[in-house]
Design goal:
Elements: H1 3-6, H2 16-19, H3 25-32, H4 37-89, H5 93-107, E1 111-115, H6 128-141, E2 146-149, E3 156-163, E4 166-173, H7 174-177, H8 182-222, H9 236-283, H10 288-312, E5 320-323, H11 324-337, E6 342-347, E7 351-354, H12 356-372, E8 377-384, E9 393-400, H13 434-444, E10 448-453, E11 459-466
Parallel strand pairs: 6-8
Antiparallel strand pairs: 1-4, 2-3, 3-4, 5-7, 8-9, 9-11, 10-11
């Protein structure tokens, strides 16, 4: 079987590239957002916190740290200017020694007056906020040639100021001219934020888990599976939603049971007179008229069986892990005994939870429908790769080379009791319930059945089942 027949969507052009052009910014943001509630909630928590960190850091650096650095630089330069002016009043070695001793003891400033020295010829190796602050203060308060080096020492800033006959050198401790411990605040702030985010993640995980369990329970119920140990948990809103779901599930199951019991009773009441008719006809002998009556009675029995099967649906059968390949082989053997030749192509692991008997009825209805109106039938089963983080899906393609049906009636044929008047009657000799029952069973497993034109010339039925 060619690739186009196995994957009808493969030939359709993708519109993703075209759709990306001209999109509203909010639509682009919506597409970029994660799909899961947990990750969306995480973004809601983390994004404002990260933004707040940037704002606080910017304000701290621009306002607090810069202001503190400017004030410390102004204080240090004022002290240096005061010492230099005092020395200039009487520039003797004795005064230089006294000023150096007092500056070291009282101000923590190592000061040296180097007579006969000159400023280094190399340009000042200072840049950044500290250098800008020192330059502004030295130009404003000292008004003498100076030289600054902030790179040769890790804990000191080398400041040299020229005076008449020499150079005043000050090795200022770095802590005197800028806020050297400001990074402690930033480290503390970011560390605290990380701890808070981790705590928030743990609590968020506990809040999301009941919602995930509720979603799993709803999906399992939609696929005909059950979660016997499921109990409402989490916040009050989640508990209310879970309890409402459980009440709804109970009502649906009760209504199905009541409908099935009612129709079973009706079927039993109708079978009693039909049985009498059959007995009386058997006692009347053989004739063409009686043969027609017997056929009518048999047709009525088949109609009752179909009505009851449709009303019963797939309730009452437990889901079990099933090898779909083995089940398809059984359906092929059944079709072969009915005179239909079916060719198979099975790809990948086809094991999944199913209500085995119900799904066999679904597949049998579809294959028998194809065999009635075509010479050849192909059945292909393919397991699709996991694309969305779930278990993937299995697609079953049933193709035939019959006449097919008009496109406008591809959905109509799934309506109960619907019959085609065209050459291809999907329930020829039946009640018009075959495909309705098949789709009901497929949807009861969380999947669906769709019809389209087949590359083989006839009709294609696609049964999709989530794994």
């Amino acid at each position: 079987m060619d690739a186009d027949r196995r994957d009808p969507a493969a030939a359709s052009p993708s519109r993703d590239g075209a759709d990306m052009h001209g999109l509203h910014p909010f639509m682009l943001l919506k597409r970029a957002m994660p799909r899961g509630l947990y990750w969306r909630s995480l973004i809601i928590i983390v994004a404002p916190m990260v933004l707040l960190q940037f704002v606080v850091t910017y304000v701290f650096l621009e306002r607090h740290w810069q202001l503190v650095t400017e004030r410390l630089s102004a204080k240090t330069v004022a002290e240096i200017a005061l010492l230099l002016n005092e020395y200039q009043e009487n520039p003797t070695p004795e005064r230089a020694a006294r000023i150096s001793a007092r500056a070291s003891q009282s101000l923590g400033l190592p000061v040296a007056f180097l007579d006969g020295e000159q400023l280094p010829e190399a340009p000042s190796s200072a840049s950044g906020l500290l250098a800008d602050s020192l330059n502004d203060e030295l130009r404003r308060r000292v008004a003498r040639p100076y030289w600054i080096n902030t790179g040769n020492y890790t804990d000191y800033v080398d400041i040299r100021i020229a005076y008449d006959g020499g150079v005043m050198r000050v090795l200022t401790p770095a802590s005197h001219v800028y806020a050297s411990n400001s990074h402690i605040f930033l480290v503390w702030m970011f560390s605290t934020s990380v701890v808070l985010i981790i705590v928030a993640l743990l609590f968020l995980r506990n809040q999301i888990r009941p919602i995930e369990r509720l979603a799993e329970a709803a999906e399992s119920f939609g696929m005909g599976r059950d979660l016997p140990n499921y109990r409402p948990q989490g916040a009050s809103e989640v508990r209310r939603a879970a309890q409402a779901f459980m009440d709804m599930r109970a009502r649906i199951q009760r209504q199905i049971e009541q409908r099935t019991a009612m129709l079973a009773g009706v079927s039993h009441d109708l079978r009693t007179p039909l049985t009498r008719f059959k007995l009386q006809l058997a006692m009347l002998g053989d004739s063409p008229e009686l043969a027609d009556l017997r056929e009518d009675v048999a047709e009525m029995e088949r109609m009752l069986d179909d009505y009851l099967e449709f009303a019963r649906g797939h309730q009452g059968e437990a889901s079990e892990l099933t090898d779909l390949a083995e089940l398809i082989e059984e359906v092929r053997e059944d079709s072969r005994r009915k005179g239909h030749e079916v060719r198979l192509e099975l790809h990948g692991d086809l094991t999944l939870p199913l209500r085995r008997n119900a799904f066999k009825r679904c597949l049998t209805n579809v294959v028998d429908n194809a065999g009635k109106y075509a010479e050849h039938v192909w059945v292909t089963a393919i397991r699709d790769a996991d694309k969305d983080g779930d278990g993937g899906s299995i697609d079953i393609f049933v193709d035939d080379d019959g006449q097919g049906i008009p496109d406008e009636q591809l959905e109509e044929v799934f309506r109960p009791f619907y019959r085609l008047d065209a050459a291809r009657n999907l329930d020829k000799g039946g009640t018009g319930l075959g495909l309705a029952i098949a789709r009901d069973i497929a949807r009861g497993h969380g999947g669906d059945i769709t019809l389209s034109r087949s590359p083989m010339g006839g009709l294609r039925a696609i049964i999709n089942l989530p794994v």
